[in-house]
UniProtKB/TrEMBL annotation:
Location of region: Disordered: 1-55
Complex formation: Homodimer.
PANTHER family: GRPE PROTEIN, GRPE PROTEIN HOMOLOG, MITOCHONDRIAL
Swiss-Prot/TrEMBL GO biological process terms: protein folding
Low complexity: compositionally biased ranges: 33-44
Localisation per UniProt entry: Cytoplasm
Name the UniProt record assigns to this protein: Protein GrpE
Keyword set includes Lyase: no
Pfam families according to UniProt: GrpE
Taxonomic source organism: Nonomuraea cypriaca
Gene behind this protein: grpE
Domain of life: Bacteria
Free-text function comment from the UniProt entry: Participates actively in the response to hyperosmotic and heat shock by preventing the aggregation of stress-denatured proteins, in association with DnaK and GrpE. It is the nucleotide exchange factor for DnaK and may function as a thermosensor. Unfolded proteins bind initially to DnaJ; upon interaction with the DnaJ-bound protein, DnaK hydrolyzes its bound ATP, resulting in the formation of a stable complex. GrpE releases ADP from DnaK; ATP binding to DnaK triggers the release of the substrate protein, thus completing the reaction cycle.
UniProt keyword terms in alphabetical order: Chaperone, Cytoplasm, Stress response
Length: 197
């Protein structure tokens, strides 16, 4: 070590890093010198920036498509939650609408109560509620609930001959099936296993 001016030796600093900080090359551990690269660094080709641009553009388009799909999915879920909430509220009002219908059938829907009933019916109609189920409709088990069954010569197919309680739907969603009395034709052949013989 070379002596300092005041007679003390200067400290020796050894750089034991495996990568030379100036060149970025791996050092030869025996000599401490940067090892020469075995192959020269590849010079960028003219096509490489174009390829990188195309790759990044494709990545950006993929990301944008994912974001668009995410927004659509969130909007679809928001609409579904709203429809479910409205359907739940309307389902709770069905007994009230049944009471209004019975009062109308018995002539008791008069005065101020009639105005309130009309306002309520207009409000639920605006929310998308509609009633269905008429006397004479063909019986459809997806929208009708049969509470009574009989046979009649006046029908040619299973038919709702009486509506005991109207059904309600919101759009295509059935909130409550129509409760009906069903009649079938009298001359319907009995079901038997011997038909195949």
């Amino acid at each position: 070590m070379p002596p300092r001016e005041n007679g003390h030796e200067e400290p020796v600093i050894r750089d034991n890093r495996k990568i030379d900080p100036e060149t970025g090359q791996v050092r030869d551990t025996a000599t401490g010198q940067a090892a020469q690269p075995q192959e020269p660094a590849a010079e960028p080709q003219d096509g490489e920036p174009v390829a990188q641009l195309a790759e990044r553009t494709a990545d950006l388009q993929r990301l944008q498509a994912e974001y668009t799909n995410y927004r659509r999915r969130v909007e679809r879920d928001r609409v579904a939650v709203r429809e479910q909430a409205v359907a739940g509220a309307l389902a709770e009002l069905l007994p009230v609408l049944d009471d209004i219908g019975r009062a109308r059938d018995h002539g008791e829907l008069t005065g101020g109560f009639a105005k309130v009933a009309e306002s309520l019916e207009a409000a639920v109609t605006k929310l998308g509620l509609s009633s269905f189920g008429q006397k004479g409709d063909p019986f459809d088990p997806t929208v009708h609930e049969a509470l009574m069954h009989s046979y009649s010569p006046e029908v040619t197919e299973p038919t709702a001959i009486e509506v005991l309680q109207p059904g309600y739907r919101m759009g295509e969603r059935v909130l409550r099936p129509a409760r009906v009395a069903v009649a079938e034709p009298e001359d319907a052949p009995p079901a038997s296993d011997d038909d195949d013989n």
